[in-house]
Design brief:
This protein is an alpha+beta fold. The protein has helices at about 25-30, 50-65, 75-85, 130-135, 160-175, 220-230, 240-245, 275-290, and strands spanning about 5-10, 10-15, 35, 40-45, 45-50, 95-100, 115-120, 135-145, 180-185, 190, 195-200, 205, 235, 250-255, 260-265, 270, 300-305, 310, 315-320. The protein is globular and about 55 Å long.
Length: about 325
C-alpha cells in the first residue's frame, strides 16, 4: 500500500511527514476514534466518490453516538475528501476520514480532550488479495464471536470496536484462509472482520439483519438495491451457521472488499470452488456503475472536482 504524500488534518492539508499525533493521544490508548472507508473510482468523466454523503453521514452519526464532537459539518468534510484526493493527484483511491481524541489525561472519559480530524487517501487494490474479486476467497468460521447488542455501539464505526475484527482476521490467516466469519452472541451468522455476508440458498438471497451485531454497511445497502433491480430481493434474517454450509453461493461486501465471492468455507468448496452466477451478475452490474460505463441511476457517485491548491510552507491551502 502506497502511503499518502498529503493528509488533510484539522482544517488544512499537510505533508504526511509532519501530520503527526502525540503518543499520549487518548485514541491510541483507548480506541476513542470514529472512522470511515470510502472508495474513489476512475471514470471517463474523472474521479468519482462512491457513497460520499452516506459515508459522511454515518461518520457524523458514529461520532454522535460515541459523544465525540466533530468541529466540521458534512459539507466541510466532503470538501476535505476532495481536496485530499486532489493534493495526492489520485483518480482511484481508498479514503479514510478519522476523528479521534488527542492528548490529555488518561481518564477513560476523554470528552475534555481535543478532537482531531484527518483524511487520508491512497491507492488500494483488492482488499483480500490479488485476483480475489474473480477467483474468490477461502473463508473460515472463527472461534471469536461478535459482541452482543448493548456491549458496544455496533452500528457506529468506532475504532475500539475493531479489536474483535483484528482477532477474527488473525485467526483466519493463522488457519490458512483469506478471511473469517464470526457468529453473534446467539450463534447466528454475523459478519466478517470487515465485510457483510450474503448467502444464496435454494435461489433466495439472505443476509443477517442489524440485530445480529453487524455494521449496516454502505456497500451492503447498494448491493441490496442492485439485487432488487435484478429480480433477486434479499431476505434479512438470522442465518444459522449450517445455512452457510449448504449455500449455493456466498459473497462478502464492503467498501474495501467491494463484492468478493467465497470459494470455500472451512475447507469445503462453495459453488464448485468458483465465483457463482448471481455473484458474477451482481459484480458486473456494480462495476458498470462505479466505473462510469453506464449512467449512475441510483445516485451513488459524487464527482471529485479539482479544487485549486496552493502550497504554503509545508502545508497546502485549498480553495473551492
Amino acid at each position: 500500500m502506497k502511503h499518502p504524500g498529503w493528509v488533510w488534518m484539522d482544517g488544512e492539508l499537510r505533508s504526511a511527514r509532519v501530520a503527526t499525533v502525540s503518543v499520549a493521544s487518548h485514541a491510541l490508548h483507548y480506541g476513542s476514534s470514529v472512522f470511515e472507508g470510502i472508495r474513489v473510482y476512475a471514470t471517463p468523466s474523472g474521479p468519482a466518490v462512491l457513497g460520499l454523503r452516506e459515508h459522511l453521514r454515518r461518520f457524523l452519526r458514529s461520532a454522535h453516538v460515541f459523544k465525540l464532537q466533530i468541529p466540521y459539518d458534512e459539507e466541510q468534510l466532503a470538501f476535505a475528501v476532495i481536496a485530499t484526493l486532489a493534493a495526492n493527484e489520485l483518480d482511484a483511491a481508498y479514503v479514510r476520514p478519522i476523528a479521534f481524541r488527542g492528548a490529555g489525561s488518561f481518564h477513560l472519559d476523554g470528552r475534555r480532550h481535543p478532537v482531531h480530524v484527518s483524511v487520508l487517501a491512497f491507492p488500494w487494490g483488492e482488499y483480500l488479495g490479488e485476483d480475489t474479486i474473480e477467483q474468490g476467497v477461502d473463508v473460515v468460521i472463527t472461534s471469536w464471536r461478535r459482541p452482543a447488542p448493548g456491549s458496544y455501539p455496533l452500528l457506529a464505526k468506532v475504532g475500539g470496536n475493531y479489536v474483535a475484527s483484528q482477532l477474527i482476521a488473525m485467526e483466519a490467516r493463522d488457519r490458512g484462509a483469506h478471511e473469517g466469519i464470526a457468529l453473534d452472541a446467539n450463534g447466528m451468522v454475523s459478519e466478517g472482520s470487515g465485510e457483510n455476508v450474503f448467502a444464496v440458498v435454494d435461489g433466495t438471497v439472505y443476509t443477517p439483519p442489524v440485530s445480529c451485531s453487524i455494521l449496516d454497511g454502505i456497500t451492503r445497502r447498494f448491493v441490496m438495491q442492485l439485487l432488487a433491480e435484478l429480480g433477486e430481493p434479499v431476505r434479512e434474517a438470522a442465518i444459522p451457521r449450517e445455512m452457510l454450509e449448504v449455500a449455493d453461493e456466498i459473497f462478502l461486501t464492503g467498501t474495501a472488499a467491494e463484492i468478493t465471492p467465497v470459494r470455500s468455507l472451512d475447507g469445503r468448496p462453495v459453488s464448485g470452488g468458483r465465483r457463482g452466477p448471481l455473484t458474477t451478475r451482481l459484480q458486473r452490474a456494480f462495476y458498470a456503475i462505479v466505473q462510469g460505463d453506464v449512467p449512475d441511476r441510483f445516485g451513488w457517485l459524487s464527482p471529485a472536482g479539482r479544487p485549486r491548491l496552493m502550497r504554503v510552507a509545508g502545508a497546502v491551502e485549498a480553495y473551492g
